[in-house]
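The instructor's notes for this session suggest beginning with a concrete chain rather than abstract definitions. Hand out the sequence below and ask the class to guess, before any prediction is shown, which regions might be ordered.
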Amino acid sequence: MHFEFFFIIVAIIVGIIFILTLLMIVSPKIRAKFMSRQIKATKYMIDEVEDDLTDIATKRANINKEGIEITAKAIKDGLKDTVYCKYCGEKIDKDSKFCKICGKEQ
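After discussion, reveal the predicted structure:
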């Protein structure tokens, strides 16, 4: 008896899902209703994490800015006989194997 009841419930649920899927394929209005809910949810999530995303973007920009400044400094002084550490950007001896500031191998 329980098995028959379970089978009927599952059949009804599968039928409802099939009908809704068919309606979404055929009817643009029903499809728009479902999509509008997804769009609203996405907008809500973006609004909730906007500050975090801004913070991440700002930190990323600052990291890139420092790297660009080091590279620009190295290019500017590139014609001279000085060498800069490729990790920290400080001047090092041309024949140095390690940086005196950061200690990384060149």
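Then share the key points. The first strand starts at residue 83 and ends at 84. Strands lie at 83-84, 91-92.
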